[in-house]
Specification:
homodimer, alpha/beta, 5-stranded parallel sheet, 22 helices, 38% helix, Transketolase_N (chains A, B), Transketolase_C (chains A, B), metal-binding (chains A, B), thiamine pyrophosphate (chains A, B), calcium (chains A, B)
Chain lengths: 628, 628
């Protein structure tokens, strides 16, 4: 089953459909060969979509395989990432990879042809494999291309039928319809069979079409194995009139009689003997090369040029004034708009998060996703793919809604800034549904993330500005209420640093807080000072990475640490400090105050007290450590 | 604005609509009064839905306010939980609470009339306030009532228009249509205005209706302030033919001219003077009492009777046999089916998670939610509301999709068991999109959760069984691959315990692992023993609560701990151990091995090694600690 060492024949946009059929068969053969060689993978899910992809790559996808970062190239998002054999077979057909790489490295350690595609491959923009995300990303990419860059390139998505059970697919299509993204086409591969049985709608392509149309997109129903019909549908889809979903009725395992439309073959490589029969049935190994349509030329500047211009003038605050960190975030974000690569995304709470300040200053780079947090993150990912610097903001509690999208963005090595406002029980009367008390755990556990939690307006503004130059996913946690400004505008707040706000040679305990609890620590230190107990106070504004040296020194010099956080005890500030102390080999006496019971409504003071994280309890914990 | 101390007039199901109008005005007046008295809240969002709720409670909701746990009573889910003034005004109209409680405790500390409703109130089944969740819960409740209990009661949902931007709404309606849940009615309050501006679809009720119909439900469009039309719509909705969404065009702030259909009034209590004018405009304070329809009688046994029957015979395994913990989970779950309150939910991966074993044994209590993890959790919550014991299972990585639903389930104090399979880089070739490496952080941070992570089939089966008697949300983390059975079938695994698998008086280091890393620890201990270094090995199967005493003793007796986990370093096993040591005041030398880089595809061995969590690296870390 190795490829014949012949000179490849090239197939261009004008080749007739019989040649495209040969390409489709080659994609099938290579999907079977690669997965059988790997011993795992999803050949049958690849076979159903091979005709769709053959027509797309030969005649419609305007893409420069040698220069994948050509800013005028189309995008192809493989939402059904498990069909990676098909995608990699396309790479081979495009001449982007060789048969050897396909046959010897797929799904193997240390190689880039992974089980599900990731941007480690230059032709892949976003990692997929958690289903139902691809259309969302594509919407973000298409928005950036059309509304931010004003280019003519298109975004194509291959989506499975099973994944339409994910609500996120409908969040995405709703936005495609809302924005009338005529540069977006989804190829929906309705192969009827899911992982463990038939899909909910099986081959009811009318039902899919009705849903698509109801969500404001155009649906075109086709037989996904009728190359002419597919070609016409893709031509129509690209007519610039509407976002389109080509609802393609297909057969899972198409082309291999022993597995076609049969249950029990999801996610299984064909055994060697069956693979050999399949390759024969499909006409044997081919070596066609595709040279599809080229990207349209673009009159404007190349992709990332012209960015990072403009002076950023962050807001300044007077020490002692009471300003909410969310307010400072909004003001700093608006100021950051001077950098043309910065975009802001809102989930219909911009007047609470203060992200709307950006909207007032830079309406053309402000995107309202309504109450659809998953799509907000998907938009951010798509815009980051196009080189923009997204800031996506909602209540800290509601970022949990998009956890899987944030997780996958980390796999895609996306750079974006998230801000979660209204953290903790501090918010008061609205009650527990609105209180983010698990966001630090969620965001710290994101691979490569930076987690920042300012206590005053000056640091909030500075850190908001800093985030525009960080790599990876950064998270800013902000507070609802207004608290005194602690720092002068010239203070700097390096990532991985901290601020020691009270310090003396006689300190007998260190109080560590961030956000509202830092203010409680300061008040507790006053109270302790009145009793003759000197307490050091550390503002741990950088939760990840954390300031190991300062914490270790505090542990050594004061012998005791109280960490207090407006968050559940697991995965937040306290455990970040414990990990830092473990790294440093420091062993202070330790107390950890956090939210351990379900809060209700109340005032901030009542709730901090009821949850055991108020100044009184900080002072009490400090006294107990000092008296030990 | 206090209520007049008159004797209330009672309004029954046969009262004419002019009386129902008076009730609606009373609900409006009380919504305004309560939120103004509290100084915060959402009066305008309450005013739009007052007519809908008046008709519902007077004529359609079959509910015994004095006996809210009557199993034959209907359910009302307030998906737009911010309209709590309206809900609480209904409670007052029903005689469930007094005017004094409404006027003096709403949104105040220590009281049950919180900013958003929670089940602390006996008439509330599920906490709401994170939008887009109510229909999902209602689907779960309706399924339990119809398919598990075979009762005639109905489920009604008040849903806002803004929240339909959440994909979860469409996951839920898809399932309502799929299951043909004719006992479910959604009242969609299309008031056109969101928090910060007009909604995406504004008053395009046709668009809503098309979406609803496309998702397999019946849509009835009405003027939401035309009481007769609403009454007819609710009568039709209850005809037993189809799940129904009453798409009601309404006016936000209806009845108060100064705020009606005006932007800028979302989530704002009316100032005292405006509130006084509003109450006057609405006809003043009333004291109508509603005695609506009664629950239908049910011939069968009362709600929770007849449960907990049947002997459970968990599977047994031979020590040394290689069995995956996910396999043991599936077998134990199937055995647990002997308890009729146990139900299982799958997100179309039952053949991978082995939840399908339950389907084979108890198909009538197995629910396929397809690839819709949010709805899977919503179904589980709804079934738990009806007294069932749900086990919901998917890949650990994909539980992140439902994080907000899990968070809210904790606010609702729901008891349910979750199982996440395919955890960690251990899974191998499928790559990072399928690897759950943040699930421990997510699940540990859930309020009141129990987190279990078995290393062998015996403990996996035992813990699966144990979960059926735990309160709150419990989580079982299982592994893809097969590893040797370590424990005899008679061993017990109490929550909060651990197992010390190797121990001697000469131990110089303790190796702590769970799941695949425990097997690496055992191998490392062998390697160290060959070098003359005795290592203790602890199986930390209970991650939350964690076995503080055993860890403290190990720290004291061996002086050094290596914790190794197939998870990111934040919020997982390592930080759980650090927190335990901090509680105990134990200060061993400490090394923490965890996944800190993005993994790719590979074999289990290659990936454990590449991520620094293999036996070789465990032994190396132990050596370094011993040599310190």
């Amino acid at each position: 089953m190795t490829a014949a060492p012949t000179t490849p024949t090239t197939l261009g946009p004008d080749s007739d459909l019989s040649r495209v059929f040969e390409l489709a068969q080659q994609l099938r053969v290579d999907s079977v060969r690669a997965s059988t060689a790997a011993g795992s993978g999803h050949p049958t899910s690849s076979l159903s979509a091979a005709d769709l992809m053959a027509v797309l790559m030969a005649r419609h996808l305007r893409y420069d395989w040698a220069t994948p970062d050509n800013p005028d190239g189309d995008h192809l998002v493989f939402s059904k990432g498990h069909a990676s054999p098909l995608l990699y077979a396309m790479f081979k057909a495009a001449g982007a990879i060789g048969d050897d790489e396909l046959m010897t490295t797929y799904r193997r350690f240390g190689h880039r042809l992974q089980g599900h595609p990731t941007p480690e491959l230059p032709w892949v923009d976003v990692a997929t494999g958690s289903l139902g995300q691809g259309i969302g990303y594509a919407v973000g990419i298409a928005l950036a291309i059309r509304d931010l860059e004003r280019r003519a390139s298109r975004v194509w998505v291959l989506c499975g039928d099973s994944e339409t059970a994910e609500g996120s697919v409908w969040e995405a299509l709703d936005k495609a319809g809302h924005h009338r993204l005529a540069n977006l086409t989804v190829l929906l591969d309705v192969n009827r069979l899911g992982q463990s049985g038939p899909t909910e709608l099986e081959w009811d392509t009318d039902a899919y079409a009705r849903r698509v149309e109801a969500f404001g997109c155009r649906a075109i129903e086709v037989d996904g194995h009728d190359l002419e019909a597919v070609d016409l549908a893709l031509t129509e889809a690209a007519d610039g009139r509407a976002p389109t979903v080509v609802v393609a009725r297909t057969v899972k395992g198409r082309g291999v009689a022993e597995v076609a439309d049969k249950a029990g073959w999801h996610g299984k490589a064909l055994p060697e003997d069956l693979a050999a029969r399949a390759v024969a049935e499909l006409g044997g190994v081919r070596d066609l090369r595709v040279r599809g349509p080229r990207p349209p030329g673009h009159p404007g500047p190349a992709h990332p040029d012209g960015r990072r211009a403009g002076p950023v003038e962050p807001p300044r605050y007077e020490v002692g004034d009471e300003v909410a960190t969310r307010v400072a975030f909004g003001a700093a974000l608006a100021a950051l708009g001077a950098r043309p690569e910065v975009v802001a995304l809102d989930a219909e709470v911009g007047n609470s998060t203060h992200a709307e300040e950006f909207a007032k200053a830079h309406p053309e780079r402000y995107f309202q996703t309504y109450i659809a947090e998953q799509q907000m993150i998907a938009d951010a990912v798509g815009m980051a793919v196009r080189g923009f610097r997204p800031y996506a903001t909602t209540f800290a509690a509601f970022l949990t809604r998009a956890h899987d999208f944030v997780r996958m963005a980390a796999v895609s090595r996306i750079t974006m800034a998230l801000c979660g406002t209204h953290c903790g029980v501090e918010i008061g009367a609205d009650g527990p549904s609105q209180m983010g008390v698990e966001d630090l755990a969620m965001m710290r556990a994101v691979l490569g993330s930076t987690v920042l939690y300012p206590s005053d307006a000056t640091s909030a503004a500075a850190l908001t500005t800093t985030m525009a130059d960080l790599d990876g996913i950064s998270y800013l946690r902000t507070t609802r209420g207004a608290y005194p400004v602690l720092y002068d505008g010239d203070e700097t707040f390096p990532v991985g640093g901290s601020k020691t706000l009270r310090e003396s040679a006689d300190d007998r305990v260190t109080l560590v807080g961030a956000g509202v609890t830092l203010h409680e620590c300061l008040a507790a230190a006053e109270e302790l000072a009145d009793e003759g107990v000197r307490a050091r106070v550390v503002d741990l504004y950088s939760v990840k990475p954390v300031d190991v040296d300062t914490l270790a020194r505090a542990a050594r010099e004061t012998g005791a640490l109280v960490v207090v956080e407006d968050h559940h005890p697991e995965g937040g500030l306290g455990e970040a400090v414990l990990s830092a102390l473990a790294v440093a080999g420091a062993h202070p006496a330790f107390a950890h105050l956090a939210v351990t019971e379900l809060p209700g409504s109340g005032t901030t003071g009542e709730l901090l007290d009821a949850c055991g994280i108020s100044r009184t309890q900080v002072a009490g914990a400090a006294r107990a450590l000092v008296a030990r």
